[in-house]
């Protein structure tokens, strides 16, 4: 959630000093959307979680992780959940 637009309407401005490319703690107060670096970090995190889910749940259902990922993506698509990017 990013608050820059709301803060602009209230006349509030923040000054944040970034110390590195992937240091984005102040972004929610100074931006209206995610930076490319934040998207990259978040996608890496979600890819790791998805990998863990497929490698844990798949074998528990007697499926290979990749087969489970395809099955789950199809289920989301059929349910109208939009599976863009799920599992990969």
Task: Describe this protein with a few key phrases.
elongated, 88 residues, 2 domains
What is the structure about, briefly put?
With 88 residues, this protein is an all-alpha fold. The protein is built from four helices and no strands. The two termini are 24 Å apart.
Gyration radius, to the nearest Å?
A: 19 Å
Mean pLDDT: 86
Helix and strand run: HHHH
Low-confidence stretches: none
Structural class: mainly alpha
Domain module count = 2
Gap between N and C termini = 24 Å
Name the shape in a single word. Answer: elongated
Query: How many E strands?
Result: 0
Q: Work out the helicity level.
A: 55-70%
The profile of the biggest β sheet is: none
Helical stretch tally: 4
Beta-strand portion reads under 5%
Task: Describe the 3D structure.
- There is one protein chain.
- This protein is mainly α and 88 residues long.
- The protein folds into two domains: 1-33, no CATH class; 35-88, no CATH class.
- It has helices at 4-9, 27-30, 36-60, 65-78.
- Helix 3 crosses helix 4 (65-78).
- The model has no long low-confidence stretch (mean pLDDT 86).
Topology:
Layout: H1 4-9, H2 27-30, H3 36-60, H4 65-78
């Amino acid at each position: 959630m990013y608050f820059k637009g709301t803060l602009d309407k209230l006349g509030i401005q923040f000054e944040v000093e970034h110390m590195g490319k992937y240091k984005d703690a102040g972004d929610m107060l100074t931006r209206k959307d995610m930076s490319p670096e934040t998207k990259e970090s978040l996608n890496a995190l979600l890819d790791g979680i998805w990998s863990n889910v497929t490698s844990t749940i798949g074998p528990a259902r007697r499926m290979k992780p990749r087969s489970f990922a395809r099955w789950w993506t199809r289920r989301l698509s059929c349910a109208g959940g939009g599976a863009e990017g799920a599992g990969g």
